[in-house]
Structure formats: structure tokens, C-alpha cells
Design a protein that fits this description.
PPPDE_sf, endopeptidase fold (from Nostoc punctiforme), alpha+beta, protease, 9 strands, deubiquitinase activity, PPPDE domain-containing protein, hydrolase
Amino acid sequence: MGTGEVSNSSSGNQNASNNIETNVILNVYDLTPLNNYSYWVGFGIFHSGIEVHGKEYGFGAHDFPVSGVFEVEPKSCPGFVYRCSISLGRINMPFSEFRAFIESVASEYHGDTYHLISKNCNHFTDDMSHRLTGKHIPGWVNRLARLGALCSCLLPESLQVTTVKQLPEYHEMEDGTDSLSTATPRESAEIDTDQEKHLLSPKDGNTDVAFIKEAKS
């Protein structure tokens, strides 16, 4: 399970973002302290993000039919506890081309389509990894979702369908591209427990998370 792990962030070894060659890294986070015990038998509850050109990209939930893909500094996704990094390979793709790629992918991952079992952050990173490198992420990262899909009838309804209510807002980035940030969650009639909020989104109001604006069709 530990094969391919790297102890240091690739961002420190990356050249300038306009270089063509870049590492593709999977950064894995714990969602519960119980992972310290279950991890060694190949089971746990994890969040993951994929690091390319010195930035980490993940997928999170909100209530709107717009991009749920966000970027953060590598190994620093707020609300989660970093566990390890796994090297997925290297690709030849200029940053400008990758930016167009991630904006295109964002149109397929709207925040209101997030589902803990069928379309979560680990499904996103697996899809990204396969498109970029031809490889899938390690199976243990998303094993809980696969097991849940087999027995979803036994899961609480709130875990199957609930998304965290966060209002995405656009703002201008330094490179001239638009990005989104999360605003204060709005009230909802649905049941949103503290644990679900921790599982599905970064901490409320954290300005270190910027949602990617999807490409215009």
C-alpha cells in the first residue's frame, strides 16, 4: 500500500510553471483518526487531491450547477489531515495547456453532482490520473465508496445524497483567469451534521480554497 509514496512535496522540485514536464502526485488525507488503525489493513476514509504544476486540485460539493473543482497549495487542503503523497508519473504538458484541460474537466464536475458514494473527490482524482498518465489511483484510497455502492441501501439517506451548502463566488486571479471562492454556507432544510461538513468540504469561509471556473462551451 505504501509503494510509490514520496515524503516531500513535488512543488519544491518543480521548475517554473511554464515548463512542459511536470510531476503528477496524489496527495491523500485522513478524514478520521480511525484511519491510523484501519489504514494498515487496507481500509479507511480518505480525501485526495491531485498535484500538477505545483498546485493541488480536488473536487467538493456545493448547491449549484457550476464547477466543484478547486485548487489549494499542495498537502494543505483545509479541514483534512495530510497522510501521504504517491507519485503517479510525469507528463509533458505546459501549464497553459493544463489550465485549459482542468477548466474543461471542471465542466464535468459540478458541485451539485457530488455524491459521497458514486462521485466523490477520489473518483475525481482517479479520473484525472487516468486521463493524464493512463494510470488509476491505488484502490485503497476509494475502497469505502466501492463498498458503499454495493450496499448503499444500508447507508443513511443523508450520507447518500447530502451536499454541503456553499455559495461559490467568482474572483479574478493574478494570472488573469477567473476562479471561485466559497462564501458563507446558506441555511438549508436538509440535515447537515458537523461530520458531513467535515467530510465533504473545507472549513467554512477559508480563503485558501479557489474553485476553478469551467471552460465556456
